[in-house]
Specification:
CATH architecture: 2-Layer Sandwich
Strand order of the largest sheet: 2-3-1-4-5
Strand content: 25-35%
Shape: globular
Radius of gyration: 15 Å
Distance between the termini: 11 Å
Order of helices and strands: EHEEHEEH
Structural class: alpha+beta
Number of domains: 1
Largest sheet: 5 strands, antiparallel
Number of helices: 3
CATH class: Alpha Beta
Helix content: 25-40%
CATH topology: Alpha-Beta Plaits
């Protein structure tokens, strides 16, 4: 199962801060039982003199995991988002010709969180 997480740290977040936050989240996610976690590459070349070693989409992580790990990932995202102000995470999954996109923020209820996991899990069973 492949997912993309898109992090939003609020409109006041600077690009460097969002990049650092995304990289810290990636490091924390590597401690979970996921198959892989990586920054999403933009596919564009960096301009001459750029400081970064790679062109990445700010705030985006690509995750590969087994379906059974999904509830654990969503639970982790819930706890992670509560640690900071204005954090929102969009979870996007493509399965065949179907795409599911859900958004989670600190104000998301437990019922909505369960619905998020159920929707993603159901989408997997369809294909």
């Amino acid at each position: 199962m492949k997912l993309t997480l898109q992090i939003d740290a609020g409109r006041d977040a600077l690009p460097d801060d969002l990049d650092a936050l995304t990289r810290r989240l990636r490091d924390e996610l590597e401690d979970l039982d996921l198959q892989s976690v990586s920054l999403v590459k933009t596919g564009r070349d960096l301009p001459a003199g750029a400081k970064a070693a790679e062109a990445v989409t700010l705030g985006a992580l690509a995750i590969t995991l087994l379906p059974g790990v999904l509830p654990k990932l969503v639970e982790f995202i819930q706890a992670w988002s509560l640690r900071g102000q204005n954090r929102t995470v969009k979870i996007k999954m493509n399965s065949g010709d179907r795409s599911v996109e859900l958004e989670y923020s600190a104000g998301t209820s437990e019922a909505a969180l369960k619905e998020l996991v159920d929707t993603l899990t159901t989408s997997l069973k369809v294909h």
